[in-house]
Amino acid sequence: MATRRTTSTKTTKPKAASTRRTKSATSTTAKSPAKTASRPKRAVPKAATPKPTVVKQSTTTVAAPDLKKKELIEAVVEKSGIKKKYAKPVVETMLAVLGDAIENGREMNLQPLGRVMFNRTVEKANARVTVAKIRQSKAQKNPGEGAKSEVADAAE
Q1: What values do phi and psi take at 56, rounded to 5?
Q2: Burial of 116 (0-12, 13-18, 19+ CB in 10 A)
């Protein structure tokens, strides 16, 4: 015959402190001042205060106005030397290709513009908001060293 162990589910309450008064608790003897004065005081450690940090003064940078498509086309015409009637369809087509790449979430590496990496896209009722990060190289390439200094040849 096998014996079975059972565990008790009875919980014990912690015993309350005794309410009986003892002789030492009711005695009214005062401590002598000589005994308390002879005790050395404990050194209380002070809380470590953080070291002050120097805050650099920030500079406010006012952004330039937005670059419009008309200004972009004029800058391309000025920099390349080609006629506006040739530059305008090229710039518009380039913007359409870039817009498609952004819509598809395709990362781009377009130097000297930089590397474009997309963080997130949020669909709104009438627009799509895309948050992107552009990383540009600080090293400037000299266009006169082995490369053409003009963007494009004038077509006539």
Answers
A1: -80, 140
A2: middle
| Ranges of the chain with pLDDT below 70 | 1-40, 43-46, 140-156
Q: Quick one: pLDDT at residue 55?
A: 81
CB-CB contact of 118 with 129 (8 Å): no
Q: Are 80 and 151 in contact (CB under 8 A)?
A: yes
Q: What angle do CA 32, 35, 41 make, to 5 degrees?
A: 130
Query: Which amino acid, one-letter code, is at 65?
Result: P
Rounded to the nearest 10°, the torsion over CA 93, 99, 101, 104 is -140
At 30-46, the pLDDT tens digits run 555 555 556 667 766 66
Confirm whether pTM is higher than 0.70. no
Residue 131 · residue 119 · CB < 8 Å: yes
CB neighbour list of residue 149: distance below 8 Å, 6 or more residues apart:
143
DSSP label of 84: H
Alpha carbon distance, N-terminus to C-terminus of the chain: 112
What residues have CB less than 8 Å from 132, skipping those under 6 apart?
102, 116, 117, 118, 119
